[in-house]
Amino acid sequence: MPSFPWLSWLIFFPLFSAVLVVLLPPRAERTIRSLATVAALAELLFALPLWWRLRPGEPGWQFAEQRSWLPALGASYSLGVDGISMLLVLLTVVLTAVAVIGAYRAVEKRSREFYALLLALESGMLGTFLSTDLLLFYVFWEAMLVPMYLLIGVWGGPRRVYAAVKFFLYTMAGSVLMLVAILWLYFLNRAVTGTPSFALDAFYRLAISPAAQVWLFLAFALAFAIKVPMFPLHTWLPDAHVEAPTAGSVILAAVLLKMGTYGFVRFAIPLFPQASAQFAPWVVALALIGIWYGALVAMVQPDLKKLVAYSSVSHLGFCMVGLYAMNSQGLAGAMLQMLNHGVSTGALFLLVGVIYERRHSRLIADFGGLWKPLPVYASVFLVVMLSSVGLPGTNGFVGEFLVLLGAFRTNPLWAATAAVGVILSAVYMLWMFQRVMFGPITHAENAKLVDLSFRERLVFAPILVLIFAIGVLPQPFLDRMQPALERTLDLSHRRAEASERLPLGPASLAAMGSSMVESTPIGAEPPATSGTVGSPAGAPPVAAPRDSTGEGPHPAGTPDTAMVSDTLPLPAAPTQPGEPR
Amino acid sequence: MSPVTVPALITADWWALGAALALSGGAMVLMLLEFLPARPRSSRGALVALLSLAAAALCVWQVRDAKRAIFEGMFMHDGFTVFFTLLFCGIAAISVLLSWDYVKRMRINQAEYYALLLAATLGMIVMAASNDLITIFLGLELMSLALYVLVGFRRSRLESNEAALKYFLLGAFASGFLLYGIALLYGATGTTNLARMAAFLVATTLPGNPLLLVGGLLLLVGFAFKVAAVPFHMWTPDAYEGAPTTVTGYMSAGAKAAGFAALLRVALVALGSLQADWTPILVSIAILTMTVGNVTALLQTNVKRMLAYSSIAHAGYVLVAVVAGGVDGGSAALFYLAVYSLMNLGAFGILALLGRDGDERVLLADLAGLGFKHPALAFALTVFMLSLGGIPPTAGFMGKFYVFSVAIKAGHVPLVIVGVLNSVVSIFYYLRVTVALYMEEPHGQPTPVSWTVPAAIGVVLSVALTLWWGIQAHALLIEAQRSVLGLL
């Protein structure tokens, strides 16, 4: 075990830097910018070694930390990382650094507060990805809203207040129900095991009856679906994206949306496997609608930023299809697509920001023929755009291919429907590119535009490297996450089996409460260790018949039994609880 | 009847009563000091008030682990009393700090102001410490009478007069209900002592005895009025808006906490065996209180009024904890009250800083553009707003989290869902304050801010604790649990 708390350092270093930035005098803009840049780059340097030192094959949380936080409630400050979260941590630190450097010229007023909030946001995002305690996760998940809200609301466009408040309220509305579900799980776990705990591992060990899973799943899924965002819940996204300053859009697209998909991989699918399988057709249906809808709406947008925003809805639909194919290809594709979307869409927002800084317009109609005055800009745009479309050789292709492969294995119809979305995305992107870059220069002021500066080229360099690296050599990335994804799939299969074996019989939450006092685990009969381990890549039954109890009004807190299964694979608890440091 | 013998007070009892003695002593000293000449901007009133509050807190702290029934069991000194005494002293002390300059600015008579503040605090302590309905009534009246005067302190202002009159008339009605309830309960059980009442109720089952039920209900009405629960909340917005801002802060924190202290003691100690009867009533009151408070707050443009409705909603959250009942519910209520008092007091304290001389600048529009002009003030107000809205990492989140968790444990899942959805609604109007602070430009002159050192100390203290309890609430949690355990 590393003696140094790397993950805590990773989470709190940006926050600490943010405080330092705020303490600087507001006029010292150069110092402020430099300090923020150094902090963001240092953070990148701290995160990179972890990426190399991560041992993907090893089960359980790595670099894990655990400290007592609220012992009376069983909540602990516990962090850990695995192949899944490592990928997102990397994405976060890279894109934050890019956003910080990219914002040099975009922020005209109050740059001190701007950079401080950006760094504080980074802390919140990393905390969300690294928490292995559900209460801690929730705290980061919600706390992160505040800096983003302020970034949109203070530095945004004309309708910024509306967009910022909408963003905050949408996300909050989804997540409060998740809090109720977390609490419900907590008391279930406490009734079964006798020890209070919010640890994710403890919940992974808990078998939950399929009927209860439905409600818990819906509560979790709502929170994540809003964040993703999935089709009917996506309306906050275009508003937030369009109004947000460039750096805010980049972070929003690249990282914040990934929290939704991360939530599905980490919580909703492994914790509630039956409900996930049961709702998979619905989730996929919404995701497919999202792919089509996002693409079609993007096609008719006159505003570049709005176009990119709707393309996000479409791309995230791919991620969701991949996740709910629930096989290893689909999951890997979805994860890779999360990374790709972060890189490509982040870059697209940056590119739109670059042109906006020069022309103070984002309307496609105001451009045309930009290739001539801006050859470097146009080339970068071309590469990024093609990667977003999914051209072979770029990162987008690998992700989309894996998603489609996974979807095909589960249901060829899904794959076919999604594939049309790929074509649509090519249509709106290429059409947009043609209207902006080719043809004659229709507006005289466009002829005098200045091409990318050295700083801007520096910003796009790592993005281009990532686009081609993932496109040509995806294996190192896949290697990091594949074992963790396999374990997640394996875990959900075993949990599904364990909850199938639950003894039937009503045990209300009130009964749970009484057993809390005795603190004896119910379900004393341990399920026999069966040799049949769910094949990791095997597709679960997709259209499971809907549980009849799930249909009617079903106050959470009715029929439910639970037990602890000894056969569930556990990510080994890496540190002793309460180990003093 | 045996001859009445007065049991001797041991040393611990004297310490326990020290709080009451220090506060009444302080109030008297303040009145006497009026006869000595002083400079108009002298701070001796505030100093005396702070000293007697500190003395009161120290006395109780001396015997914090003792459990004593004093005066024939009318006055209980236990963990519960200690918790609330410290809480009330803290609330009053922060109020004094925030009022320090405000009362001078508003030309309020200092000696009377602080003397009444101490008297109200004493009333609150008596309410929390009473183990007898009569003593509860005594404390409640002491607190209320002092508050009626404080609310109307700015005699020259019409709103202040209206507020005081409304508060007084409705308050007098509520006191009447309470007293009548006490009489009926006495008729049903033959005692006003809470412990004896509990013993009587356990021994003789009186389910559905109309005297008992009506008595309990009237008692509930009286308390619901004091904590501003719907439908007994009508006085709140007017009283809060008209009162001097520091008084609003003080009463929104203290009077509510005191009302809940008495309610909790009655509910947990005396009427614990009737839980099945009062739970459905409290559930409906809690749902109504949260919903009406939050929805009405959405429509306000005056921040003071908005916070008044928000404080109604917060009474609803505490009621959720009371509904959960038992040690869990009690400790969650205590935890929430401590957290709520802090953040609400802080928010009103900030409002008290706005404006110069006699004018009050408490409209949402008055906050416009303060965010970058007065970063510290805006940061503090933002922290309080986020905390009131229950956003981590603030104490308000921990409070709501704890309340909702005990309610789920007790099986009130639908109630909790109503509660969490309400907190989403509430976020909207709390965000409006931050919108005004950071995202709007002022129309005309920006609002002047009257920072002074004592007020700054009060605000910094509140912000620091609000953040600290949001990050590490363990100590407060344990303290709240211990206090309630001593009660049962």
Quick synopsis:
The complex is a heterodimer of chains A (581) and B (488). Chain A has 581 residues and is mostly helical.
Q: Give the H and E element order of chain A.
A: HHEEHHHHHHEHHHHHHHHHHHHE
Report the oligomer: heterodimer
Distance between the termini of chain B: 29 Å
Strand adjacency order, main sheet of chain A:
1-2
**Averaging pLDDT over every residue of chain B, what do you get?**
90
What's the story with the biggest beta sheet of chain B? Answer: 2 strands, antiparallel
Tell me the layout of helices and strands.
The complex is a heterodimer of chains A (581) and B (488).
Chain A: H1 6-23, H2 29-53, E1 62-70, E2 75-81, H3 83-102, H4 111-130, H5 134-143, H6 145-155, H7 160-193, H8 200-205, E3 206-208, H9 210-227, H10 236-243, H11 246-271, H12 273-299, H13 304-325, H14 328-359, H15 375-389, H16 395-410, H17 412-437, H18 454-472, H19 475-500, H20 509-518, E4 562-564
Chain B: H1 11-33, H2 44-62, E1 68-70, E2 75-77, H3 79-105, H4 110-129, H5 133-151, H6 158-189, H7 194-203, H8 210-227, H9 235-242, H10 245-270, H11 275-297, H12 303-324, H13 326-353, H14 370-373, H15 375-389, H16 395-409, H17 413-439, H18 453-471, H19 474-487
Antiparallel strand pairs in B: 1-2
Helix pairs in contact in B: 1-2, 1-4, 2-3, 2-4, 3-4, 3-10, 3-13, 3-18, 3-19, 4-5, 4-10, 5-6, 5-10, 6-8, 6-9, 7-10, 8-10, 9-10, 9-12, 10-12, 10-13, 11-12, 11-17, 12-13, 12-16, 12-17, 13-15, 13-16, 13-18, 13-19, 15-17, 15-18, 16-17, 16-18
Describe the fold and architecture.
The complex is a heterodimer of chains A (581) and B (488). With 581 residues, chain A is mainly alpha-helical. Helices cover 67% and strands 4% of the residues of chain A. Chain A has 20 helices and 4 strands. In chain A, the strands form 2 sheets. In chain A, strands 1-2 form a two-stranded antiparallel ribbon. A two-stranded antiparallel ribbon of chain A has the order 3-4. The two termini of chain A are 13 Å apart. The C terminus of chain A is likely disordered. In chain B, helix 3 runs antiparallel to helix 18. In chain B, a hairpin with a 4-residue loop joins strand 1 and strand 2. A two-stranded antiparallel ribbon of chain B has the order 1-2. With 488 residues, chain B is mainly alpha-helical. The longest helix of chain B has 32 residues. Chain B is globular. Chain B contains 19 helices and 2 strands.
